[in-house]
Amino acid sequence: MYSTTATAPIRVTSILPKRGLRLTSLRCYSNTACSSGLRSGGFFVQNSNGHHRSQQQTDNKRVFSTTPRTQIKEFFPPPETDHIRDLESSWTHPVFTYKQMRDIKIAHREAKTWSDWVALGTVRMLRWGMDYVTGYKHPAEGEEHKLPRRFIMDERKWLIRFIFLESVAGVPGMVGGMLRHLRSLRKMKRDNGWIETLLEEAYNERMHLLSFMKLAEPGWFMRLMVLGAQGVFFNGFFISYLVSPRTCHRFVGYLEEEAVITYTRAIQEIEDGKLPKWTTMPAPEIAIKYWNMPEGHHTMRDLLLYVRADEAKHREVNHTLGNLNQQTDPNPYVAKYKDDNVPHPSKGADVVRPTGWEREEVI
Ligand SMILES: [Fe+2]
Ligand SMILES: [Fe+2]
């Protein structure tokens, strides 16, 4: 997740001498380049030693770092290559309209089977543990003003939460995709389209993480926590997926319900003026390119709207996959249907079914 390329110390922006810097070029790079630990877009400035740095980094973008300012490093530095100009992704993000993103709602799928209850119970336990350890409290509706001062969130606290959660969120899709891939090889049978959706979800979650990483660089403690969480969660999810993939998809569906709640609250706080630094702050270039954010919608609030819409899609996809026969059913999100006149699952936000599609509707 954190490639050495991506974190290689290219230059400490705050200690670079102002003199001897010169603007060398204006270059645009794709989201893939950014996601691969290569360049992000924007101006690059070269100092007298030939080191490059992004002009954006010198602006007000990484003010919420948990690392002392003098130790902040350039992320996604330019590649050292004479021949490569850019990279291309196989996955382009579906276009979300502003209305579709505003229409995303908090939702909950009722637990009906023992497998659902195991999934829901695990998510609730993890959420409680995470909130307890990090000192986070979600106020009941209408009781926000009663929240003790220590639980009031600011931009920095939100970012730390987002980064930690996104670093974990990228695991399930990769594990699910990997295990289905291996099963297909092992059993010499086709997968029926699940693998690419699961891997795409993992890619999407990683893009969430990388977008937030352009705003803050976690310190060693945070990195240690992420490392520990990844080690435990990857192995736990790996074994659970071997035992019951259906429960795992339901678990991710419930996890994404929580993600939608979290981002909805953050968006509300921006709109209420409680996060003043984010009201006008521009979203990172990597995010603008990945979501193809239209002109006039480049703020942090817009970024969170896009991320929330993605989480809502993951919520729907995983609840739907949790309703299917894991061995034989095709993936409804890549299926071509016989009757195009009725709504079907889609990758975009044009058709949204927060609690998932039932098997009888899609197979
Ligand atoms: Fe995410
Ligand atoms: Fe997600």
UniProtKB/TrEMBL annotation:
Cofactor: Fe cation
Ranges that cross the membrane: 158-179, 220-243
EC number: 1.-.-.-
Function: Catalyzes cyanide-resistant oxygen consumption. May increase respiration when the cytochrome respiratory pathway is restricted, or in response to low temperatures.
Region (Disordered) residue spans: 338-363
Gene behind this protein: AOX2_2
Membrane topology field: Multi-pass membrane protein
Protein name: Alternative oxidase
Cofactor note text: Binds 2 iron ions per subunit.
Family of the protein in this entry: Belongs to the alternative oxidase family.
Primary location: mitochondrion
Originating organism: Paecilomyces lecythidis
Keywords for this protein: Electron transport, Iron, Membrane, Metal-binding, Oxidoreductase, Respiratory chain, Transmembrane, Transmembrane helix, Transport
Lineage: Eukaryota, Fungi, Dikarya, Ascomycota, Pezizomycotina
A Pfam family: AOX
Top-level lineage group: Eukaryota
Localization annotation: Mitochondrion inner membrane
